[in-house]
Write a structure and sequence with these properties.
single chain; alpha/beta; seven-stranded mixed β-sheet; 12 helices; globular; binds 4-(N,N-dimethylamino)cinnamoyl-COA; ClpP/crotonase-like_dom_sf; Enoyl-CoA_hydra/iso; lyase; Enoyl-CoA_hydra_C; fatty acid metabolism
Length: 258
């Protein structure tokens, strides 16, 4: 377990990294220190050869957005010169799957980070929103772009223009989250899913993630070709033979990443 000032990271023998945002008194508001440490923690998880990353928040929030106290006196020059908050995007660039375990508030930048995760598991009491409009700004790390691709224009406009919050049930209905479970079960559910994914062939998992993400970024014909090329490629590896042999032998597969 590595403890930073604003977060903690634990990478288990099972290949699952658990990254916890840890400023509970400020509802895990995202400040500069946390952003820098977040990037360091992602590097640490990569060095530790984590196979899946679970991201959660300590206390009653996933994250209530960028730290408003830190942002209030920033100028246009400060924001553009330092490109504040850009490092969060590193989460979306990880090659391994990421699972967001959302307990409580995921607002503003917190909702945007949640949307960078590949799978989102929310507790019944979670709430999501892009309330930046009420602060005289707009979302800045995906809240107008990823959100629109995920839920469509009608829902995205409603959330971004009114700043209203949606509860977990509505977030599930509009396709923003993958699963809703009881608040007490959020982390366990996420860790169980992470362990399951970590047990599969790493190359197949990477191929699956790349292909699904590709769907947002290419015309269907290109996406289908990309998928087919990856599909063919997996027949180059021992894990394909092992997975299919295990099925036919009625035994669990022993993937070796070979
Ligand atoms: N920043 C700083 N402190 C926060 C905070 C935040 N976003 N959210 C909560 N806190 C602090 C509160 O000030 C309070 O501190 P104390 O008064 O105890 O010292 C403590 O956390 C507990 O909060 P509350 O007392 O307000 O708790 P409640 O249960 O009454 O309300 C709430 C919970 C989540 C509804 C409320 O705290 C709230 O509305 N929070 C603000 C939510 C919000 O507006 N979030 C959006 C922030 S703007 C960029 C990219 C992205 C962004 C910016 C730039 N670039 C690329 C440059 C992102 C912007 C945002 O996220």
């Amino acid at each position: 377990m590595s403890t930073y000032d604003t977060l903690s990271l634990a990478v288990g023998d099972d290949g699952v990294a658990l990254l916890t945002l840890n400023r509970p008194d400020a509802l895990n508001a995202l400040n500069s220190t946390m952003m820098r440490e977040f990037a360091e923690a992602l590097d640490e998880a990569t060095r530790a050869e984590a196979r899946v990353l679970v991201l959660t928040g300590a206390g009653r929030a996933f994250a209530a957005g960028a730290d408003i106290a830190e942002m209030r006196d920033r100028t246009f020059g400060d924001m553009t010169d330092a490109d504040h908050l850009s490092l969060w995007e590193r989460l979306a660039q990880l090659r391994i799957p990421t699972i967001g375990a959302v307990n409580g508030f995921a607002l503003g930048g917190g909702c945007e980070i949640a949307m960078m995760c590949d799978v989102l598991i929310a507790g019944e009491g979670a709430s999501f929103g892009q309330p930046e409009i009420a602060l005289g700004i707009i979302p800045g790390i995906g809240g107008t772009q990823r959100l629109t691709r995920i839920v469509g224009k009608a829902q995205a406009m409603d959330l971004v223009l009114t700043g209203r919050r949606v509860d977990a049930a509505e977030a599930h209905r509009i396709g923003l989250v993958s699963r809703v479970v009881s608040d007490a079960d959020v982390l366990d559910e996420a860790l169980t899913a992470a362990r399951k994914i970590a047990g599969f062939s790493a190359r197949a998992v990477r191929a699956a993630k790349e292909c699904v993400l590709r769907a947002d970024q290419t015309p269907l014909s290109e996406g289908l070709l990309f998928e087919r090329r990856w599909f063919h490629s997996l027949f180059a590896f021992a894990d394909q033979t092992e997975g299919m042999s295990a099925f036919l032998d009625k035994r669990p597969a022993r993937f070796t990443d070979g």
